[in-house]
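Second opinion, please. Pick holes in both lines of this record:
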Amino acid sequence: MYKLLFCLLLLGTFAQQVWAQTSPPIELNATTTNARHGEAVRQSVVENWQLPRLMSDATVRVRATVLLSGAVVEPELVSELPPGPELEEVRRSLNEAIGRTVAAVPPGPIEFTITVRSGGAYLEGCFPLKVYVDPRLQDSPEPVPSVLLEAIAKSTERWNRLMAGFTRRAASEPFVMVGDPEAADVRVETYEQYPDFSSYLVSDDSRLAVVRLPLKQRREGLFAAGYRWRHPEVITQQAMFQLGRLLGLDPTAVPNNVLFPGASYALEARSINGSTELLHSVVVLGNGPDLSEEGRTARTIIPQQLRSAEVMMRMHSCGQTAGLPPR
């Protein structure tokens, strides 16, 4: 009897040793770990994603598998966008970004969500919003000409003068340039190749907006084909469009409007009574041969847009919590 009990005890001890050697370690916080890996892959995908031009916001849920090599494969994309060209463009561009991504996480399934914004949005910051322009191209080591960085800064100056003229300087300026990226509410990134008037990104805590601008355009030619720097005025127009959405303004289908997602020749600002006298100083535009390829329609902004921007600024002005009384 004692021999039998001894044998059973010995067998149990041996089984425990085998189980300890062959069973995988228990992941006590698998949900947190998987979420962290998914967020790391998400950041890499976002860096590679050339955001399309959309007229509405889009949220995409991504499920995929990370291989031992870091490749992200078998992506499944789920979006609330209705079937149509915008959904197809989101799928195409996001699949391309995933295909270029090499993830620095352990192999296995991952899941994450990306939201891109297209309409007017309010950040958790207050006006004036602090704008930082990254002086480097994100996709090329080539230095950015200073005249193009100045063209981006000019977009903030124009919005500031527009709002100062419309409100008779009763409201603060909507934007201020800063040199510290950590202090920014808006980060402007520049690219050699990127879609025109694309959607933009907002951080999960809604404290930082990232807008991306293409500084070059492909030109066809027998001897001089390739990417060339755009005219500064075209850069200013794209930057004004992007910043206008951060004033709470939605894109418009009116071809000559400052919130129209396309380039044009001129900017004309009108006050409520239809006169341009109040904002005449804003109508100072560049010119150049390259603009002819971008279209010649006049840029306009209507009183309703300026009034909406004024309400947004006053309701979310730094140090002010009271709403704006009716005009």
Summary: The chain has six helices and twelve strands. The two ends are 99 Å apart (CA to CA). The mean pLDDT is 79.
